[in-house]
Amino acid sequence: MKNRTGVLLGRLMRNIMRSPDTIITVAVTPIMMMLLFVYVFGGAIETGTANYVNYLLPGILLITIASGVAYTSLRLFNDVKSGLMTRFTTMPIKRSSILWAHVWTSLISNALTIAIVILVALLMGFRSNAGVFDWLSVIGILGLFTLALTWLAVIPGLTARSMEGATAYSYPLIFLPFISSAFVPTETMPAIVRAFAENQPVTSIVNSIRALLYDGVVDSSIWIALGWCLAIMVMAYFVTGKVFKRQLR
């Protein structure tokens, strides 16, 4: 069995480059949200920061990733329904390379989309005093978060019976940042909502990215953030392996 991850990755990336509307479509929604919240709601939201786009950007980046990984489910669903997945599994290649190609495609395409969103944020006034190590840490957290959600996306991509079912799981993920510290400080929320917001994955991830971008000093929230990402990724990877093996029988 040969590892053909690179060949399969090239196939998927060529499809994306031939039709870059996928990346553009994923970028449009977060950008529109960023414009809306900064220029319409920003003046009425008290965050303790001089520039609301600085406060908002980490959460917008997570929404961008959550939107982007839905296309991983869609691409897998299309491969399964078209019979291409069955054809791949009969070829002398490692079975894991089929899924890893989709995962790496998600990582690359999401990185391109994030770059577009950050560029727009810069035009809107986003500034950071983060050093090289801080930026590398931010990239690492975003990459780990992308991997975690992508492996989660593989599950409906393999099991969904319709295109809508393959992508529907992403809606709760996109909504989750709204009940976190992504848009407003959790201190302003009612007690029950605040308890949920402060103990769900997005808040610790957003707080860690925000601290790295502007303060250069992170607290224990970064370990909580990494723990959440790793836990989601390991769980999703384990479930995906079980589902994929069952489909190969």
TrEMBL record:
The chain crosses the membrane at residues 21-41, 53-77, 98-123, 135-154, 166-184, 222-240. It comes from the Bacteria. InterPro entries: ABC2_TM, ABC2_TM_bact-type, ABC_2_transport, Nod_factor_ABC_transporter. Keywords: Cell membrane, Membrane, Transmembrane, Transmembrane helix, Transport. It is a multi-pass membrane protein. It is found in: Cell membrane; Membrane. Residues 21-247 form the ABC transmembrane type-2 domain. The keyword Membrane applies. Pfam families: ABC2_membrane (PF01061). The keyword Hydrolase does not apply. Belongs to the ABC-2 integral membrane protein family. PANTHER family: NODULATION PROTEIN J. This is Transport permease protein. It comes from Gracilibacillus salinarum.
